[in-house]
Each structure stands twice: as structure tokens, then as C-alpha cells.
Amino acid sequence: MLTLDHFLVQWGDWELTADFTVPPGAKVGVLGPSGSGKSTLLAAIAGFQPLNAGRILWNGDDITDLPPVARPVAILFQDNNLFPHLTAAENVGLGLRPDLKLDKAQKAAVDEALQRVGLEGFDARKPGQLSGGQAARVALARALLRKKPLMLLDEPFGALGPALRAEMLALVDDLVRETGATLLMVSHEPADARAVADSVILVAEGRAHPPVPTADLFANPPEALRDYLGG
Ligand SMILES: Nc1ncnc2c1ncn2[C@@H]1O[C@H](COP(=O)(O)OP(=O)(O)OP(=O)(O)O)[C@@H](O)[C@H]1O
After folding, report:
1. Pocket of ligand 1 contains residue 34 by CB under 6 Å
2. In 3D, which of 105, 82, 104, 77 has the Cα closest to residue 94?
3. What is the pTM (predicted TM-score) of this model?
């Protein structure tokens, strides 16, 4: 269970507030206009963006001051952050040990993660030898391997075409179902949220609103979402 308690991030006169709880195992879309603070929200939860006020709690424990590595969080960004000089297996292995000194069990876990995202046999390829969809799968395998209970996706599949994106979202859906992880997913495509998310956090006008059931939100969209959806 993720709780944002009187959460505040501020730059000059720009601010983002949040005050809500996300139930365990929820699959939550994060929607809102460009510049509203969706990436900032995820970066703060992951520990890359300090808060100006408030607290972040995981299952009741205060994680506000923990460094990113000590948080129960795996985050996947749009550009996937693969290292071009490392193989697919090494890029995945970084999720376990930054120095890549993996023991036998850890190497087996890397193989298993690659297999789980459908990349068996691609372990020795470097990112330049992978398609966009395959590279996204490598990044997903790395996030998966960390076995964190909270998975944050900041538009990691935005650069992919609609068919590949749908395939990746289906894979994410399967993976979070298997692991019981809580998912927060930023998307510029409301259809993606409708496909995967059972609830939606709307970020607009300085506030990340508490999650509401996806069907309710789209049946009766608030003005900020109507603007965002283009009327
Ligand atoms: N390090 C920073 N310092 C100052 N302002 C920042 C910083 N990072 C982001 N901002 C500003 O904070 C606001 C929110 O940015 P953020 O990237 O979170 O929005 P977003 O909703 O994810 O946008 P988009 O949909 O375009 O990706 C923007 O006005 C942005 O310019």
C-alpha cells in the first residue's frame, strides 16, 4: 500500500500536491496534461525528486528519506536507459548488481527474466542489434528481475507503434498479475490506461487527484480530463 501524505513538490510558483493511498496490487494509470507533473510524481515516489513537504509511506513505513535503491520500487523510463556497450544479459544483470559480478543463481535469474519477456537467445546482443520493441523488453526484464513490489512506468513504450505498445502493455499486465505488484503507469494515450488500469490518478492544476475507477472517470470525465482528451 502506497500512501502520499500531504505530499508537496515545488519549483518557484509551480507546485504539485497529493494526499491519497493506492491499495495493494492496484493497476493505476497516471493521466494529465503535458507539464502537469506526472513524471515528477513518479520521480518523487522512486526517490529521484526530494519532497518540499509531506511523506511517502509504503505499507505504513516512512520511505521519504530512503535513497532510490533502498525503496520498494522499480522504475522504467521512456528511453529505457540501456547501456549501448553492454549486452542484453549485462543490461538486465545491472538490476541485480551494478558491478555485474553475478553468481550462478543471479545469472540464472537473468536468463529467466529474458525468457519471461520473450528474449531467449538474445542475451549476447547489444542494444544496437535490437529492435525498439526488443530493447523495451530488455529494460522491462531488468525492472522485473529486481522483484520490487511497486512498479513505476513513465511512458516506457511511448516510442513504439500501437501494435507493439499493446503487446508490451499486455506483457506488463501479465507480469504484475503474476507478482502481485502495484503498478503506476504514466501514459499519453488514455486508451492504454483503459486497457490496463483499474483506476486512474488525474494530475492537473497542481494536484495529483486520488485514484478513481477507470470506467467511472471515462464515463464522466472531469473538465481537466475533457481538455486533455481533446473535448
Ligand atoms: N528539475 C526541475 N526544475 C524545475 N522545474 C522542473 C524540473 N523538472 C520538471 N520541472 C517542471 O515541472 C513541471 C512538471 O514536469 P513533469 O515532467 O513532471 O510533467 P509531465 O506531466 O510529466 O509532463 P509531460 O507529459 O510533458 O511529460 C513542468 O512545468 C516542468 O517544466
Report:
1. yes
2. 82
3. 0.91
Burial of 37 (C-beta count, 10 Å sphere; 0-12/13-18/19+):
buried
- Any ligand 1 atom below 6 A from CB of 30: no
How far is the centre of ligand 1, averaged over its atoms, from the C-alpha of 35 (Å)?
Answer: 5
Q: How many angstroms does the Cα of residue 124 sit away from the middle of ligand 1?
A: 36
* Model pLDDT for residues 135-181, shown as the tens digit of each residue: 989 998 998 888 899 999 998 888 788 888 888 888 889 888 888 99
Taking the C-alpha atoms of residue 70 and residue 82, their distance in angstroms, rounded to an integer, is 21
Please give the number of the atom of ligand 1 that sits closest to the Cα of 37.
18
Dihedrals phi, psi of 153, to nearest 5 degrees: -115, 115
180-203 pLDDT, tens digit per residue, is 999 999 988 888 888 899 999 999
- What pLDDT is attached to residue 230? 66
37 is written with which cell numbers?
Answer: 507533473
Report pLDDT digits (tens) over 55-105.
Answer: 999 999 999 999 998 999 999 887 767 999 999 999 999 988 889 999 999
Q: 226 C-alpha vs ligand 1 centroid, how far in Å?
A: 21
**For a pocket test of ligand 1, which of 8, 38, 78 has the largest count of ligand atoms closer than 8 A to its C-beta?**
38
DSSP code of 53? Answer: E
Q: Is 48 in the pocket of ligand 1 (CB under 6 A)?
A: no
